[in-house]
């Protein structure tokens, strides 16, 4: 079933070209979403809904003109196109457009069989009860999110493409307190898939891990500060590469020369032990797509190979402005945004070091077992990230737990100081915000060693 009549799409694109655009595309979206919030041992909020809209983009030279509407009415779409085209101030004799549907091999998603709402509540209630068996737990917050996005894309090159994108995620967040001591623990697994993803989660293990983390950090002394080697665990530790380095490799920043790497293609920008990948094709991963929001099939893009910068993350406009080939990375939150170059599943690839050797190489340092949130200046890569769970390393051994640690540095500096990369790659779901809104992305890495980084601490 078409979301928009091909005849209407043809007329809108023909109009945009006649008004002087070099390229026109339409992005049609229908998204069904569901949210369940479980807090204070009861369902606090249950929402479901459908939103629909159409985005119209005209590209003239290196300028983008974008508008959107909820209407499929041909006259309304022509009106918006005329308003956009009026800013070009040029008339063309457009070529005839023959749409040819592109057939892509979709990324397999976990089977999406509808789940009884009563069972969803039972599942959340069961998780809540597991956590609350511990007397120090004072709050449990669980968010279950399910979204099914259907997209259809037409463009002036004759492309017609469509995609179905199922997303599911379950957030676990607990707060523990004992007298004056308080701690928090968080876990948010997600997938490109259906309700059956929940069956793959070992809730007993998740609860046990978060309770152990929360209890350990509850009584941990403040972390000492200073420059020292830091070992960062696998999984969500990859958020540092994503935020402090990945964004600098998007043509969104490269085209403005706002990235320190804009002219470093082919040069060594990282330690030779490091290889980094951005891959949109991984089955079942939160940041995966069959096609991007410009209708291009996603691909596996090697960003850094043995320390050398090999590729940037590029969309159509990025290629137009920088010459760097598109990588199937044009993404956006919804029809209300124009697409931009964005990451998908971005991670540091497995290296050659064994975990025991990585730890034994550190006489005194910090083990960041679980990373938290932080802030980054995208123009410089300067970052400040909190460590949710940390331990002091002495003579190669994990010793005292510490709280309040932050990692402070810059992406370009840290890339050169990642001297050892382990072999236990793990990926974790997250959300990424940028000029085209908030989108699902995956971060990841194996265990890594940073030779030296500034650790901010309360001690």
Q: Which properties best describe this structure?
A:
alpha+beta, PmbA/TldD fold, single chain, eight-stranded mixed β-sheet, 459 residues, 9 helices, six-stranded mixed β-sheet, 41% strand
Mind explaining what this structure looks like?
With about 450 residues, the chain is of the alpha+beta class. Among the domains are: about 90 residues, PmbA/TldD superfamily (PmbA/TldD fold, 2-Layer Sandwich), CATH 3.30.2290; about 230 residues, no CATH class. About 20% of the residues lie in helices and about 40% in strands. The protein has nine helices and 23 strands. The strands form four sheets. Strands 1, 2, 3, 4, 5, 6, 7 and 8 form an eight-stranded mixed sheet that branches. A six-stranded mixed sheet has the order 12-11-10-15-22-21. α1 packs parallel to α2. The mean pLDDT is about 95.
């Amino acid at each position: 079933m078409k979301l928009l009549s091909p005849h209407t799409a043809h007329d809108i694109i023909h109009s945009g070209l006649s008004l002087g655009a070099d390229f026109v595309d339409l992005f049609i979206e229908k998204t069904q979403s569901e949210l369940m919030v479980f807090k204070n041992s009861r369902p606090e909020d249950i929402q479901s809904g459908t939103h629909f809209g159409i985005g119209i983009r005209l590209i003239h030279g290196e300028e983008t003109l974008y508008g959107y509407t909820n209407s499929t009415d041909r006259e309304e779409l022509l009106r918006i196109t005329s308003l956009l085209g009026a800013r070009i101030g040029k008339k063309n004799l457009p070529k005839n457009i023959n749409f040819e549907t592109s057939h892509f091999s979709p990324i397999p998603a976990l089977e999406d069989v509808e789940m009884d709402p009563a069972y969803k509540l039972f599942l959340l209630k069961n998780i809540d009860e597991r956590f609350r068996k511990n007397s120090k737990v004072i709050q449990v917050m669980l968010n279950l999110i399910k979204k099914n996005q259907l997209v259809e894309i037409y463009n002036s090159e004759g492309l017609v493409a469509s995609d179905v994108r199922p997303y599911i995620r379950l957030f676990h967040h607990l707060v523990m307190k004992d007298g004056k001591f308080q701690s928090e623990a968080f876990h948010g697994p997600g997938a490109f898939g259906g309700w059956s993803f929940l069956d793959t989660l070992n809730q007993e293990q998740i609860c046990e891990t978060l309770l152990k983390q929360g209890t350990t950090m509850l009584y941990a002394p403040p972390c000492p500060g200073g420059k020292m080697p830091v070992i960062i665990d696998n999984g969500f530790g990859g958020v540092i590469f994503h935020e402090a380095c990945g964004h600098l490799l998007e043509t969104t920043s490269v085209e403005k020369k706002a990235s320190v790497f804009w002219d470093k293609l082919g040069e060594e920008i990282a330690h030779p032990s490091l290889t980094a990948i951005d891959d949109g094709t991984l089955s079942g991963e939160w940041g995966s797509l069959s096609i991007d929001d410009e209708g291009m099939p996603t691909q596996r893009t090697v960003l850094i190979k043995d320390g050398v910068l090999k590729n940037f993350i590029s969309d159509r406009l990025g290629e137009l402005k920088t010459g760097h080939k598109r990588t199937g990375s044009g993404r956006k939150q919804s029809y209300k945004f124009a697409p931009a170059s964005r990451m998908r599943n971005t991670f540091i690839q497995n290296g050659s070091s064994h975990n025991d050797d990585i730890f034994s190489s550190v006489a005194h340092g910090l083990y960041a077992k679980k990373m938290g949130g932080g802030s980054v200046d995208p123009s410089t890569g300067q970052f400040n990230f909190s460590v949710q769970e940390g331990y002091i390393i002495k003579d190669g051994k994990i010793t005292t737990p510490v709280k309040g640690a932050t990692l402070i540095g810059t992406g370009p500096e840290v890339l050169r100081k990642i001297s050892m990369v382990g072999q236990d790659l793990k990926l974790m779901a997250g959300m990424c915000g940028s000029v085209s809104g908030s989108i699902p992305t995956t971060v990841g890495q194996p265990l890594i060693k940073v030779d030296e980084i500034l650790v901010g601490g309360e001690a």
